[in-house]
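Lab notebook, design round three. We kept the backbone fixed and only want residue identities now. Task for the bench partner: fill in a sequence for the structure below.
Input structure tokens:
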């Protein structure tokens, strides 16, 4: 969200992010390869991506708290392939201070 109903932004602290790098496990890579050939969703890889996305979000929240933020607006996720090594997952947004209306 770009705002929080019932609150007003009293200060914009600035951008914050949480970053993690997911290195693919051997089993997930094998499963993904088989699913590519046969079709279907690779459950192991999907579970790993979910867990690493949560880790990026936790790091985003920690970064905002460290700057004294009460909220993070306009949260987004981005991922980038790191060649054959893994995947970078970044959660980012704008840290702000807020107060109830």
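Proposed sequence:
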């Amino acid at each position: 969200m770009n705002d929080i109903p019932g609150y007003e932004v009293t200060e914009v602290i600035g951008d914050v992010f949480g970053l993690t790098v997911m290195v693919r496990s051997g089993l997930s890579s094998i499963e993904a390869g088989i699913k590519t050939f046969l079709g279907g969703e690779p459950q192991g890889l999907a579970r790993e991506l979910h867990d690493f996305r949560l880790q990026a979000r936790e790091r985003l929240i920690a970064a905002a708290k460290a700057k004294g933020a009460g909220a993070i607006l306009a949260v987004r996720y981005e991922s980038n392939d790191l060649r054959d090594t893994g995947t970078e997952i970044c959660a980012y947004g704008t840290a702000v201070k807020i107060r109830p209306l």
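Keep this in mind before ordering anything: Residues 7-100 form a domain with the Translation Initiation Factor IF3 fold (CATH 3.30.110.70).
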